[in-house]
Write a structure and sequence with these properties.
The chain is an all-alpha fold. The chain has 13 helices and no strands.
Length: 300
């Protein structure tokens, strides 16, 4: 199967399998919530840093403590800590279900057992994901923020080093891109899965690079096709800011919150399609390449 056929089959499975999209939607929703909180917090820090008075790491707790009783502060902080934990854990949890269900669909098996796939593959997938934790932009931003807060004199060297680690981690991630599939489909251990992925990638490097580029371009096209969905909410938000000048603040906040949830839902729906499609590409690629004879084996 050539790369174009893999892309077409991956998109067909994305459209066909509702269970995959459901897992992808919840995962995308929680990940978007986590990234949104990070963006708001780091924007607050950036503004304070530019003004010459950078906030501390627990500035949000201090802000709440100055305005609310201890009980309310404890309840709010506990709620957000639990929410952040769920947002951090669930995408790892969902990945096993998405890979396994996509493989079943491609092999024309009954598409069920998502929860079992998620539970039994969680720990090895979590270990693989966290092995490349420094390859996340959000992690680099967070660590850079900590350096700027508490060791500003080391910021040029520290942030530069983080960027180098980020690049190196993503290069490694490329070679281990099919480790997740090896864990879920073949039930390989973490080391064996990473070794299997590395061997497949260097054996069929041109094939993998072409898929990577093609999948990226198609993802951009999907994004461009649905970007119009976000124009209407954006216009409505602008109207809300206008209404806030003559409506009660509480009403304006409620309207903004409702519109924010609508935008979040649309964004998560879009990201679910893109993420499930991307994952389907590598699931099918792994299944197809695994059928081929290993290039270093001359005679079995």
């Amino acid at each position: 199967m050539n790369p174009r056929e893999i892309i077409a089959q991956a998109w067909a499975i994305t459209l066909k399998e509702r269970q995959l999209r459901q897992w992808g939607f919840v995962s995308a929703l929680l990940e978007t919530l986590l990234n949104t909180k990070l963006l708001i917090y780091q924007t607050w820090f950036l503004i304070s840093y530019i003004e010459g008075n950078p906030i501390g790491f627990f500035a949000d707790v201090e802000w709440l403590s100055a305005r609310l009783s201890f009980g309310w502060v404890a309840a709010i902080v506990s709620f957000f800590l639990v929410l952040i934990f769920i947002e951090w854990i669930f995408p790892h949890f969902a990945k096993g279900a998405i890979v396994g269900l996509a493989a079943k669909s491609y092999k024309n098996e009954e598409v069920k057992g998502g929860l079992v796939l998620a539970v039994y593959n969680f720990f090895p997938l979590f270990a693989i994901h966290e092995f490349f934790f420094i390859g996340s932009i959000s992690m680099v931003i967070t660590l850079s923020s900590i350096i700027l807060r508490y060791a500003p004199e080391m910021a040029p060297f520290g942030i530069g080093l983080l960027i180098l680690f980020f690049i190196f981690s993503n290069i490694l991630r490329f070679f281990y891109i099919m480790s997740e599939e090896a864990v879920v489909i073949r039930k390989l251990g973490i080391g064996q899965a990473m070794k299997s992925s590395f061997k497949l990638v260097i054996s069929y490097l041109g094939h993998v690079v072409f898929l990577l580029i093609l999948g990226f371009l198609i993802s951009l096209r999907i994004f461009a096709n649905v970007v119009m969905i976000f124009l209407l909410p954006a216009i409505v938000i602008g109207v809300v800011f206008l209404f806030a000048s003559f409506l009660p603040l509480t009403v304006a906040i409620i309207i903004g919150a409702v519109l924010g949830l609508i935008i979040l839902g649309f964004a998560s729906y879009l990201f679910a399609y893109i993420e499930v499609f991307r994952q389907n590409v590598w699931t099918i690629t792994y299944l197809e390449l695994s059928k081929l004879k290993e290039l270093d084996v001359i005679e079995s």
